[in-house]
Every structure is written in structure tokens, then in C-alpha cells.
Design a protein that fits this description.
- It is globular, with a radius of gyration of 15 Å.
- It is of the alpha+beta class and 142 residues long.
- The chain has a five-stranded mixed beta sheet.
- The chain is 27% helix and 25% strand.
- It has a single domain (8-121), classed as 3-Layer(aba) Sandwich (Aminopeptidase), CATH 3.40.630.
């Protein structure tokens, strides 16, 4: 998959621990400890990163059990590179993966923060309320 801007390259790869933690922070997402990233990233089912020159400026991952449940997570773009279609590039790659690699009946989910819901809706994601509501258990802060 190629983006119309040749300055950005999409790679099918899991981000490094350092890039993962940095992108989450600068994109305004909750921090993750080094320990959490070291444990979690190897369990990624599918991931993409976007590179600008020698720097990782975007990422997105899919986690889950590889059969019944898949969750799209960690979509982040460096604020200095936002507004260039990189979020769309990430989502297109992740949605292509779930459409081609998941079995019939698999449940694909994500949590939409703020205006990101409008991007996700362009890829077919719909709110699950009022039938369901997303919930979380905050255990320990990073």
C-alpha cells in the first residue's frame, strides 16, 4: 500500500518499544510503562508503522485471540505530521487485514476517543450503544 506522498512509507511491522511509548505520549494518549510495552508488543497480531525519513511518525496495531476477537488499538500519528492522511493510511491497512485475514463471525472492535470516531466511521465502524457500552478496569497507572 503506497501513500500519494512519497515522503511517507507504510511498513508492516510492530513499532519498537521506544517508538510506541513516544508516539502514544506525543499523540496525547495515555502513557504505557516500558514493562507493559515489552510484554504487550510481542503479542501483536498485525501492526503498521509510518516512516518519514528515518523516524517513525505513525502506528496502529491489532491485538486479540486470532480467531474470535480482534481489537484495533494504538492508532497514533505524531502531531507534526497530522493532517496529511496518515491516520487514513493506517486505518486502511488495518481494515484490509481484518477483512482478508479474519474468520467468519470474528468480532472486530475499537474504542473511539473524541473526533477519531468520524475517521473510524469511514471504515464501517458503528457505535454499539445502547445495546452495549465500552467499559474499562483501571488497575495501575503507568
Amino acid at each position: 500500500m503506497q501513500h500519494e506522498n512519497p515522503d511517507y512509507q507504510l511498513h508492516i511491522e510492530t513499532p519498537t518499544v521506544e517508538d510506541y511509548r513516544r508516539l502514544r505520549l506525543i499523540a496525547g494518549m495515555s502513557p504505557k510503562s516500558e514493562e507493559a510495552a515489552l510484554r504487550g508488543l510481542p503479542n501483536t497480531l498485525f501492526a503498521v508503522t509510518i516512516h518519514f525519513q528515518d523516524e517513525t511518525v505513525g502506528m496502529g496495531r491489532i491485538v486479540g485471540d486470532g480467531g474470535c476477537f480482534y481489537q484495533i488499538v494504538d492508532i497514533a500519528v505524531d502531531p507534526a505530521h497530522q493532517g496529511k492522511g496518515l491516520g487514513k493510511m493506517i486505518m486502511a491497512a488495518l481494515v484490509d487485514y481484518v477483512k482478508t485475514e479474519t474468520p467468519a463471525g470474528a468480532y472486530i472492535s475499537l474504542i473511539a476517543d473524541g473526533p477519531a470516531q468520524y475517521l473510524y466511521a469511514k471504515y464501517g465502524f458503528e457505535p454499539v450503544t445502547p445495546a452495549s457500552i465500552g467499559m474499562a478496569l483501571p488497575v495501575r497507572k503507568a
